[in-house]
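Incident review: delayed structure delivery

Summary: a single-chain prediction request sat in the queue longer than the usual turnaround. Root cause was a stuck worker, restarted by the on-call engineer. No data loss occurred. The affected request and its eventual output are reproduced below so the record is complete for anyone auditing the incident later.

Affected input:
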Amino acid sequence: MRKTTFFTTLAALVLTATQAFSWTTWGTKDGDKKMYLSVDTGYSSCQYNAMKRGAQSWNAVGCSGFTFRQDNPVKIDRPVPSKDGRSHITYSSAGGALAVTYLMNNSSSRECDMIIDNGVNFNCGPDASRWNEYDLEGVVCHEEGHMLGLGHSSVQAATMYYAIGAGDDSKRSLHQDDIDGVCYLY
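Output delivered after worker restart:
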């Protein structure tokens, strides 16, 4: 009887903990609660606006006080990732992923570089993605979550879930799990 009670209690605690903290953290938070993002000047306005909308999703979370700020666009003519004191977003090969974020500086002023794979068929508009397109806004929103310090979530509906399928526009909107994560950090 005591053994059954112990395992039942342990299972209840594990289930409760998983529901409360489905996201993980990745490094430290940005100390001043502002991250300046510089976008390569080679982007189309459609691509640029999709990236901006992704950042606005995180900026709209009222409990965090965190803000993505627009840095001056620059022509990125150096290898990315590269530690230079600025956080950049650029198109290149992401090594088989849709996009990847590199943590360059994990101090109180976080520096990250994001690479979006230039060989992927992305939809960058606010309209719905077709079955053969990946949603750029949702992918960027996920990667910006990493820039904030969030790891992956075990909640499939969350923006910070590790995968997204073609035609899936649901990662544009933050799930409560994403909001809980950023509010915990900031």
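Verification: The domain at 23-185 is CATH 3.40.390.10 (Collagenase (Catalytic Domain)).
Action items: add queue-age alerting; document worker restart procedure.
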